[in-house]
Amino acid sequence: MFEIISKIFKGPKTDFKALAKKGAVIIDVRSNEEFKSGHIKGAINVPVEQIKTRINDVKKMNKPVITCCRSGMRSGMAASVLLSAGIEVYNGGAWNLLQKKI
Questions:
Q1: Could you report the per-residue pLDDT of 71-95, keeping only the tens digit for each?
Q2: How are strands ordered across the β-sheet holding 25-28?
Q3: Helix (H) or strand (E) segment spanning residue 69
């Protein structure tokens, strides 16, 4: 379990730009209001409280997922849930910093 948490929150350096070019889905797990105030173009808003109920929707996308939020904490929690469901997922951290990386 510690390895999973470590991978989500620290993990090796991820090439988010390459993931995005290959079609990774960006899921912004902030609230609807936060999302409306600014987000990465093309990102999907699934508030962290809803991530468990949307796992099947995410699986149907059949693509790697990058989660993001305001600071990286909620996206880390969401990434953990998705990883446990067998989804290839990367914690992108803060959305505004992720946007600069992609």
A1: 999 999 999 999 999 999 999 999 9
A2: 44-45, 25-28, 65-69, 89-94
A3: strand 65-69
Would you list the domain boundaries of the chain?
2-101
CB 21 within 8 A of CB 4: no
Q: Are strands 65-69 and 25-28 parallel, antiparallel or unpaired?
A: parallel
The verdict on pTM exceeding 0.85 is yes
pLDDT in tens, 25-39: 999 999 999 999 999
Contact 52, 81 (CB under 8 A): yes
Question: φ and ψ at 26, to 5 degrees?
Answer: -100, 120
Cα–Cα distance for residue pair 85/22, rounded to 1 Å = 22
Around Cβ 38, how many Cβ atoms within 10 Å?
11
Q: Which CATH superfamily is domain 2-101 in?
A: Rhodanese-like domain (3.40.250.10)
CB atoms within 10 A of CB 58: 21
Q: Mean pLDDT throughout 14-23? A: 94
